[in-house]
Specification:
It contains 16 helices and no strands. It is an all-alpha fold. Helix 4 runs parallel beside helix 6.
Length: 436
Amino acid sequence: MISVLYKRHKETIHNFSWRSLQLFGKYGVTAVIFFVAARLLSPEDFGLLNYLRTVFFLLMIFCDFGLSYAVSKFVTEYKIAQPEKLNRIAFTIVVFSVSVGALVSLVLIALGDTFFKENYRYVLYFLPYLFLIPLTDILDGMYRGLKEFKKLAVISSIVSLVSIGISLFLINRYLLPGVIWSLNITGLLLFLSLCGFQRNFRFEFDKSVLVEVLKYAVLLGIGTVAGFLYTRVSILILKQFGFIVEIGYYGLLDGIFQLIFLPFGILGQVIAPNTTAYITVKNVAEIKSKVKKYAAFCVVAGLALSVSLYFGIPVVVKTIFPKYNVADFFLITNILLPLMPFYVWGAVLNQGFIVPAGMAKIYVVILLIGGILNVVLNYVFISLFGFVGVFWVMVGLHSGSTIIATVYFYIKINALAESSFYPPKASLGDSGEQRA
């Protein structure tokens, strides 16, 4: 039975394994940096760090604006249908992202002292991060679209090994500034390495490629802005109400969650190129089958995670992070644990099916509505219940939006099957790819 399943899903298993090694190398360094910071910094300083990262995450949205996901999709399509454009896409999108980043940086330098006051120097330390993360994500999308997961894994692993030692030294010596410098150095090393080992790269700007990618990326970018309103804006609102320590509590908890969710995001990214190929040949039946199987798997995995974390997190916190061994931290944890199945399936659904199928509008509309509701309800619930109101809002919006997205995507896929003149069971081999 196991050998049969392995043969049937051989490509997905291999790609998942390499992608896991790559992302655990890439994000594992970030996780180490933040867990060390959580242990060494006070909850107040750790809360400030998470607040600043949230601000820069918002600014980085405008430097990427969906480009990294769009690049992955178009690399897959260009490889199949327009190979002459493949070598020009990376340089074209990188140039555009750097140009936007430079403009954002100038505005930030001019106005940052007014908005951030005593924290302005930390903002300046973060400026390289504004460029490096979008650029590494764009090149990451290039490798994903080409299914070069093994090469990506090797590069990230080597960079991680080099970065960890540097990061531990800087954090121990300089605390909060050291954390920021560590993130910048890690991003720089990864960007240079990804550039150096990408063969499908030509220093040639192609306006037609930029226009084509931007048309799709804009929708994803709007979705990313909506996603910020849907999730991370809560940190800015908590800061506005003075809950900086609670931001630190949530920052640690979110770091644990993100590390656990990483395999499911990887799974979505690994199956994404196959979803694009299935859509290209109109193999709707295969997509519907994959959605059912992965949804069932994710729900079971999410429930198991909820139970495991309920018993596991208190042990980890008491042992490694004693500063967070307080009632408010565990209150936040227990409120959010029921969301595990929705978080897990949502990651696979969005990255593995909705976006690569070219149906990002579903993602954008749901996030935009949810984002607006999140902002409004956060203010209402904080006024009524204090900081915990933010987390009750998260539970309601995340669970509801995941269910709605699943149902609507399935309806759209059925509609595509009914309206298509292509054979519904066209083989993925027709597109030159292996079946996952």
